[in-house]
Amino acid sequence: MPADRNYFCARKFSEITVNVGQQTIGTCCAETPNIINYNKLQQENMFNLSHMMREREMMLNNQKVVSCDGCWQAEDQGLPSLRLVQKHNKKILQSPTVQQVKSFNLVFGTKCGMTCSYCTQNSSSSWFKDLQHNGPYELIDQVDLYSIGNKNLVIKKISAVFGSSKKNEQILFEQICKAAKSVDMWYVTGGETLLYIKLLLKLLNIIPSTAQVVIMTGLGIKEKQFTKFLNILKAYPNVTLGISAENMYELYEFNRYGNTYKNFLTCLTAVKNSGIDYQFFSTLSNLTVFGYVDFVQWADKKIEAQPIITPSFMRIQNLDPASKKFLIEKMQTNYCGEFDWLIETLQADHETSLNDKKNLQLFLQEFSNRRKLNLNIFPNTFLEWLNIHVV
Ligand code: SF4
Q1: What is the Å distance from ligand 1's center to 83 Cα?
Q2: Does residue 2 surpass a pLDDT of 50?
Q3: Which residues pair with 18 in a beta bridge?
């Protein structure tokens, strides 16, 4: 158990996340959010909604907030959580009320042509289609993520209702316009954000040019369409593209299924030629970590990396001892400061639970069979540890 258990996290006090598709609102993008109550949203300050105030009060009183369970679970096992990796655990505030937030995360919806290995139906329409057409992944205790249950259908219904409610749309838009007056940093995500170009332009036109906007994209779009977007985005010098990637070649195509590495490079070249600023955002799991050191050496821009917390079987530390040793040595040989927390995670005394190991095995077999992908891109020791035999 880590020494610091003050249960404080600055992200609760400095961020707002609104998911337009799922109709939810919360603070940090990693917490479990609340469904938007439009009456309250109209009456209360968006940065200080009653549930946010309650949770901040709890954090200030050193109590465990349920919506941050992903972080607590990781820390309970002595593992790095987002709050610890990003160093948000210093109790620097005293009041649950905030005058303004540092960043606003806006999630447009789930429209996306990719099924990234760490992603789920909650963020990708292609993942939803996979489950709808090919059935659930028969994993242990992972029903919410890998099968279409009532919860997912309710979310779809809520989104559909919202889509037809002009009044709610107007309330939300007014609140976002109010927020735009004081927020300096915006993160816009999807699905694939660039598939929501109308919404994106509506947003860019209300955000002052003095604020920074990071538009997240997986570059999973055809070159012609992408170049068209880039030409539109050139009119907004405050925009940076946040490109999601962490691997190259076959590992890229496995973990970012739905895009080809060739198309990724073509679109990246178009970004470079456009003059629009960009940076990388890497999501690190036990499936993406294998190609990460090569990616860091190849990348010519800043990388912001974060560990996967959910599903637990995909956490970085769930690897065989030989793979851990290999990765630690590779990071030490090609050392950069960004590797510190990763090395620490891999060196931690952690034993993968039987359920996590079984789920990882089942997931890899199902994911690769459905997409006709070969698992031989992963080290033998890793596959043998999972009792997976490839030809
Ligand atoms: S504790 Fe974790 S989930 Fe909660 S606000 Fe901080 S980073 Fe987000």
Answers
A1: 6
A2: no
A3: 25, 106
pLDDT tens per residue across span 309-346: 889 899 999 999 999 999 999 999 999 988 999 999 99
pLDDT at 1: 43
Any idea which residue has 């190849």 for tokens? 298
- Cβ–ligand 1 distance for 9 under 6 Å, the answer yes
Would you call 85 helix, strand, or coil by DSSP? helix
| Ligand 1 atom at shortest distance from the alpha carbon of 70 | 3
Residue type, 305: A
C-alpha 251/C-alpha 260 separation (Å) is: 11
Tell me the pTM. 0.90
Tell me which amino acid residue 135 is.
G
pLDDT in tens, 130-149: 999 999 999 998 878 899 87
Distance 331 CA to ligand 1 centre (A): 27
Q: Decide: 56 in ligand 1 pocket, CB within 6 A.
A: no
Question: Which protein residue's CA is at the shortest distance from atom 7 of ligand 1?
Answer: 83
- Ligand 1: residue of 4, 7, 9 to mutate (most ligand atoms within 8 A of CB) is 9
* Residues in contact with 335: Cβ distance below 8 Å, sequence separation at least 6, in sequence order: none
Tokens of 141: 């205790």
Count of CA atoms in the C-beta half-sphere (13 A) of 233? 25
User: Does residue 276's CB lie within 6 angstroms of at least one atom of ligand 1?
Assistant: no
Which H/E stretch holds residue 214? strand 212-217
Buried b / exposed e along 149-179 (16+ C-beta atoms within 10 A): eeebeebbebbeebeeeeebeebbeebbeeb
Q: From the CB of residue 233, how many other CB atoms can be counted at a distance below 10 Å?
A: 22
Give yes or no for a contact between 6 and 62, defined as CB atoms under 8 angstroms apart: yes
- The full set of domain ranges for the chain reads 1-100, 102-385
- The overall average pLDDT reported for the chain is 92
In short, whether 68's Cβ falls inside 6 Å of ligand 1 is yes
Cα–Cα dist 122/365, whole Å: 21
Cis peptide upstream of residue 311 (ω within 30 degrees of 0)? yes
Name the token pair of 298. 């190849």
The CATH code that applies to domain 102-385 is: 3.20.20
Give 239's strand partners. Answer: 213
Query: Which 3-state string (H, E, C) describes 178-191?
Result: HHHCCCCEEEEECC
DSSP alpha helices (H): ranges in 193-248? Answer: 197-204, 223-233
Residue 334 is given by DSSP the state T
